[in-house]
C-alpha cells in the first residue's frame, strides 16, 4: 500500500526546498521501506539546489542517511523490519563485470536497479517526483533497492551513522582503496569539510607520518588538528603548494582533493613529490578544464586519479568503519557540527555555505 509522507522537494533549480506531502509507493520485491531518522547535508545537494549541477525536478534530495527498516520486499535478503541501516548512493547489481571485479562504484547496471513500473514518489498533482540516487533521504520515509543499504548494529547511534554512507566511505575509501596509503607516507588533504575530515582520519588510520590539512577557513583548520592532521596550511593567506613542499621537503606522497574545483585539483597535483599520487574526490564541473604539466606527469611519474565515492565497497567497508568507531579509532561524533529539522534544511545549507562546519545533519523526525 502506498502512503503519504513529508518530504523536502526541490521543484525548480536554482530554487528552494519546500516541505510537501507526497505519496510514497509500496516497496517492490527487491526494495526496502525505511523510516529515515537522520540525513547529512552534502555539498552535492547544494550544487543541485543552486543549479550548478543539473537536477531532475521535482526531486527529493538527500543520499547520506540512517534509519530503520519498516518493510522488506519478497526477494530482499539480509534485511528485515527493525534493522538499523545506512544508505549509500553507489548501489550495485553484483553481476556485471565491474561488480564481479570488486569495483562496485562503477556498476554498469545501477540505473536498471532503480527502474520500476510506477514512480516511487508522486506529488499532490500526481506528477512523478525524482528521488535522488534512488534514495531521496530528505523525507520521513524512503523506498530504496536493497543494494543501496547496509545493516549496522542496533547499538550504533543513528546520528553518527548517518555520515558513514557518503562522507566517510568517500574520504576513508580514497585513502585505503584508491590511493592505498602505506604507513609512514606523507599526505595532504585539500578541503576540510566532511569528506576531507574523513580522509584525514583515514590517513591517520593508515599510519601516515605527515597529514597536512589545507583550507581557507581558520575554524576548519583548527578542527582538522583534532581529527589527526599534523600541520595546517591556510590557503587564503599563503601559496598552498609551496607551503606543502616546504613542510615535506619536496612534496607529498599522496594528496586528496575534497573540494571540486579545477584550481585545487591542479594544486593537489603540483604539491606532489616525484612518484606521488593525487586523488580527486570532488566533482569538478565540466566548465572548468584542468591544466596539468605533462613533464611532471611522465618524467616525475606523478599520477592523477579519480575516486568516485572513494571507490568503496560499502557492504564490507561500513561495518569496518562501525568497528573503528566502537573502538574509538574513528571520531564520527565530532563530525556532526549542527542539527536542523526537516523543515529547516534551507537554514542548514545556508550555514554550510558560511563555512567552518564539518557536517550539518538533518533530524528528519523533527519538523513543524
Strand content: 25-35%
The number of domains is 2
Backbone structural class: alpha/beta
Shape: globular
Number of strands: 18
How large is the count of helical segments?
12
Q: Class of the largest domain in CATH?
A: Alpha Beta
Q: Radius of gyration, rounded? A: 20 Å
N-end to C-end Cα span: 26 Å
- Which runs of at least 5 residues are low in confidence (pLDDT < 50)? none
The CATH homology group name of the largest domain: Medium-chain alcohol dehydrogenases, catalytic domain
If classified by CATH, what would the architecture of the largest domain be?
Answer: Alpha-Beta Complex
CATH topology of the largest domain: Quinone Oxidoreductase, Chain A, domain 1
Main beta sheet: 7 strands, mixed
Keywords:
alpha/beta; 6-stranded parallel β-sheet; Quinone Oxidoreductase, Chain A, domain 1; 7-stranded mixed β-sheet; 368 residues; Rossmann fold; 18 strands
